[in-house]
From TrEMBL:
It is found in: Cell membrane. Keywords: Cell membrane, Membrane, Transmembrane, Transmembrane helix. The chain crosses the membrane at residues 12-29, 35-56, 68-93, 108-130, 137-155, 175-194, 224-245, 311-329. It comes from Arcobacter roscoffensis. It holds the Pfam family BPD_transp_2. This is Branched-chain amino acid ABC transporter permease. It is a multi-pass membrane protein.
Amino acid sequence: MMNDTIFTKQRLINLSIIVVAIWFTWFAQVTFDDYTVRIINNVCIFIILAVSYNLINGVTGQLSLEPNGFVAVGAYVTAILTLDADTMLYQFYLEDPSEWVLALQADFAWALLFSGIISALLALTLSFPVFRVRGDYLAIVTLGFGFIIKILAINNPQITNGSLGLNDIPEFSNLYWTGGIAIFTVIAILNVIYSKYGRAMKAVRDDEDAATAMGINTFKTKTLAFCTSAFFEGVGGGLLAALLTSISPDLFTFLLTFQLLIIIILGGLGSTTGAILGTIFVMAGLEWARFLDEPMNILGFQTEGTPGMRMVVFSLVLIIVMLFAREGLMGKKELFDLKIFKRKKGNK
């Protein structure tokens, strides 16, 4: 009976959070100015990327450095499917676009779905060579994948327009899309984590050899996490392309992966709630701190604007946070694991 009560309470808490998130998405879209809405759009997209990246890196414990590659695949697939033939012909300068590229057309929703599916299929193909190694070697192999995608994008101008990239991509990414998909991604990832597959992923993270001895198919478990993560990273890449309306190979460098790595480590490896908080802290915090680059009046003293000062302050804040929170803001805990949501001892 007590377990049923706790389970019901957790479901009510989760449902309340979902309702609040949906309400905030609608409220922000109809109330805030364009600049603020764009920042929130960017935060929502990076929540999708961070939460999905945390599944393979934090929950499953595989040091993978591939997100920029899957994000790039998703962005290019969505861009090609949503651009019309006339727009492509107008901007392909290096080489004429392939006939099959011109023939590809899809609505935005289908384009996002195809972006995720293609990224997941690519992850499935990569999983066979990638998961033959562990640890640092796994990181090196997946790091190389991101460079390969960038080189392929540059050297196939008949598909991607080479180093010039694709422009005039239809801007579909409003808060209903980015916020709605971010909410769906968080729900889906949490359901995976708290399923039997999620428990197997955590077992692989804690001790892969012991997990194998207990009968867990570690290759299947890691592949499932890898493909699930790649699917949502591909969808996030498509949303990013539709938000920026312009993409190029230089957008998908290792810096993007490094940024996501900072986010999930800051929030807490293995915590979906931590990945969300880390995204808000990094993406929204950096935008809010832009005033540090501008001239300021501090206690009557006028200071000159110092470009890059916000990055210095942000780096100091990161150092302080990591010194006092070694496992990140949330560690491996979720929101409903906090004491305020726990049943007090002695209560029946």
